[in-house]
């Protein structure tokens, strides 16, 4: 018995419509050179990798919260060292957009200090229009061997800061949050190792730094 042609057509059109709807029902976030995506909507990104970093992220339509920082090679005397900005929390509302977040070029410590004060991130959609966002900073003094970004965001969202998640969304995130002490300890160990790699990079000569960069780029 041959399949009913009309039925096949209906199934095909329904599947196409379903696929198109699901593809469109999200935002795509791209980040520029040196920008590190640390967490999105309360969930830490790449906790198990020292070398890979998220550069493209799919986010649901509506209100989203991301945690980012910036890494730059800053000239100190005759050498360059890796320096990190503080972590910034951005809160924005977007639907079916391709977004790009980038930071200004930073070459000196003065540039980094100015960036910390101005918080002048460039946040644009695919048409080049500015994306409205609220921003706050999570400061941590001193050398940090490890950070628990999920816990820091959880505390931050209770603070009433401008970029804190709305209470309704905080409750929703708490219901789906899955985290145990074993994975948390593993993440802290990974973060500590990453910090130590940065420390030794800053101690190395130019030849060793070049080899280090090539190793990372080949991962």
TrEMBL record:
UniProtKB keywords: Signal
Pfam families: DUF2057
Domain of life from the UniProt record: Bacteria
Chain residue ranges for the region called Disordered: 168-188
Leader sequence segment: 1-24
Family the UniProt entry places it in: Belongs to the UPF0319 family.
Protein name: UPF0319 protein MED92_01759
Organism: Neptuniibacter caesariensis
Lineage summary: Bacteria, Pseudomonadati, Pseudomonadota, Gammaproteobacteria, Oceanospirillales
């Amino acid at each position: 018995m041959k399949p009913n042609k009309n039925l096949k057509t209906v199934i095909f059109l329904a599947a196409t419509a379903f696929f198109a709807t699901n593809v469109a029902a999200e935002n795509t976030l791209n980040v520029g050179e040196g920008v590190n995506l640390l967490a999105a909507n309360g969930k830490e990104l790449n906790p198990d990798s020292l070398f890979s970093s998220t550069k493209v992220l799919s986010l649901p339509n509506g209100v989203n919260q991301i945690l980012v920082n910036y890494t730059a090679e800053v000239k100190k005397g005759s050498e360059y060292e890796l320096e990190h900005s503080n972590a910034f929390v951005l809160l924005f509302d977007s639907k079916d957009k391709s977004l790009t977040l980038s930071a200004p070029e930073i070459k000196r410590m003065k540039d980094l200090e100015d960036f910390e004060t101005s918080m002048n991130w460039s946040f644009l959609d695919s048409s080049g229009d500015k994306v409205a966002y609220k921003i706050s900073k999570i400061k941590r003094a001193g050398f940090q061997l490890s950070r628990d970004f999920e816990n820091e965001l959880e505390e931050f969202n209770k603070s009433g800061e401008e970029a804190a998640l709305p209470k309704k969304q905080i409750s929703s995130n708490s219901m789906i949050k899955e985290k145990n002490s074993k994975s948390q300890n593993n993440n802290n160990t990974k973060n500590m190792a990453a910090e130590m790699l940065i420390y030794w990079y800053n101690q190395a000569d130019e030849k060793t730094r070049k080899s280090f960069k090539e190793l990372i780029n080949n991962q």
